């Protein structure tokens, strides 16, 4: 379904202006709470006054015309509509803390080319939708007892309140993660090991519309590759030697209606990457040893500590899967960049240790806290937790001293950090880039001579220059 106009010979701006000035737009705008028109690059071309007031934008909203729609509506899905050409006929969007019913449609010309998109906010009081929701519930059927039990067993363990921190980078992280929770789209969590990506994934699910449905996690690095396909997709009865005679339900099917968390997705083999891509694109899969297509409705949250973009360049990760996962990337900062958060984390962790044991509360003295504050924490929050727990258990008295953290002393304060070991693919790419620069320098910028000096063709040399953005 799409809104269309009749004359593709007009410039796109004129075609969109034709819709804007159409009397039908005035009629539709009178029935809804706000409307917007964007062009084929998701730039705002028109915004109704009612929508401006709803968004609490300044009266001079004309400054947003020509700007990306996300600048006015950060959680807008209009870009997805114009890029895919598919409407989102009924959706919920949170605006200024209130859930609203919205409709989004692509605008096509008479050649069936997408030239923009149009969106309407129809209700800002969800009570209007109650009869429709109740009818849908009767037709679809409420969750079975087994589904409820499954959801209860696999509920999110953490909320945003469990992600401790008040540093500017963490406040920005939580803001973006809350925004992600409001959008029912794929999220990619990036960051070093131990930074709290799994906690954040739980929190996003907990704050989303899928909160009452299962949260199912799969750690790609923890499962042998030979078992991963059955773990992931399930297996038909007798699919392989030793398989359960009743068959096995995979993690994707267990997550139906909820969220599937793919931890360390960068460790997924290329063969399984292809199958995961189908799940993302079509929301369907086949169990191992079965020809029956199973359709699901899952939201994917993926996490990795590896450089997926670099892996795409070296052929270790499928580019189409990377772009499917990288819809809403969120970078989780390392602990060393979280100014002032170490004290908060230490206090919170020590209270947890105290509550879980019969030991008295113990806290670091000033010198010990200074050591904890300046240590570079290559293992991030996970390393801090393990270090504190060990010191808490074996310490004598009610005070933790520098002696309780002796293994940290001289191991790399912030001003004297050891250089982190880079992934091989990243190190090789960096070396290649340096060789290209050295060859260009030695040959005074002559590219033909540089290619000859490196023993490669001129075409290959140009490709590598473009790959490393050296031209």
From TrEMBL:
Keyword Nucleotide-binding applies: yes
A Pfam family that the UniProt record links to this protein: AAA_lid_14
BP-aspect Gene Ontology terms: regulation of DNA-templated transcription
GO molecular function, one term: sequence-specific DNA binding
Domain of life: Bacteria
Keywords per UniProt: ATP-binding, DNA-binding, Nucleotide-binding, Transcription, Transcription regulation
All copies of domain Sigma-54 factor interaction, residue ranges: 163-393
InterPro entries, per database record: AAA+_ATPase, AAA_lid_NorR, Homeodomain-like_sf, HTH_Fis, P-loop_NTPase, PAS-like_dom_sf, Sigma_54_int, Sigma_54_int_dom_ATP-bd_1
Name of this chain's protein: Sigma 54-dependent transcriptional activator
Species of the source: Hahella chejuensis (strain KCTC 2396)
